[in-house]
User: Fold Phosphoribosylglycinamide formyltransferase from Cavenderia fasciculata.
Amino acid sequence: MFNIVVLISGNGSNLQAIIDAIENKTLEGVSISAVISNKSEAFGLKRAEKHNIATRVFSLQKYLKDDASRNRNDYGIELAKIIREYNPKLIVLAGWMIILPASFLVEFEKNQPIIDVINLHPALPGQFAGAHAIERAYESFQKGEIDHTGLMVHKVIEEIDAGQVILTANVDIKKEDTLSDLEERMHSVEHTTLVNAIKLLSTQQ
Ligand SMILES: Nc1nc2c(c(=O)[nH]1)N[C@@H](CN(C=O)c1ccc(C(=O)N[C@@H](CCC(=O)O)C(=O)O)cc1)CN2
Ligand SMILES: NCC(=O)N[C@@H]1O[C@H](COP(=O)([O-])[O-])[C@@H](O)[C@H]1O
Assistant:
């Protein structure tokens, strides 16, 4: 079984797309062994619980507040330990809004088997790296700087949103679009693209 661990911070509509794809056999041989969130209030946790998927909450903010001697690298090592408990072959960041330190990434690069960490980012390669990418693309379109946007699924490296691109897709922006129109169109294309990226990686194993 191609076990995946999914990391989220919010609504979890992309997590839901993965769950649905497993259940309708678009993703055969894939199983979500756990969903981990940095926010206890993330609705995606309820989506996982509804499908009897193991969930964990591990907040960076709380981890640092509980012991002032700790730092983000310590968090990264602890997060990696938690994830290893679930024996994933792939780690999927689906709306995970914490920058992962090198200490986390090295845990999955140095040990065999190497475990890929992938991220879904709602912008095209080289555009709008970081948070709030959809809003920034919308504003850029309004200024006439771009005529469309898109998304990518990429390997996670220390540099934000700069890892090897696995899949990318364009997303149209229309003159009459509100920001929520664009967000809705973006999420719809994300759901398909993320499932296709996981399918690609699971069949390459
Ligand atoms: N080392 C990496 N970590 C992460 C990557 C990556 O490519 N390399 N991708 C991000 C996802 N992401 C954009 O795709 C992203 C998410 C969040 C942030 C950010 O500034 N986070 C702040 C906290 C924001 C908050 O509390 O809401 C932070 O971590 O301090 C940047 C990029 C996931 N991680
Ligand atoms: N920088 C990372 C980033 O912005 N990720 C974005 O968070 C949203 C999560 O939606 P969801 O919780 O409904 O899946 C998605 O649009 C995803 O691309």
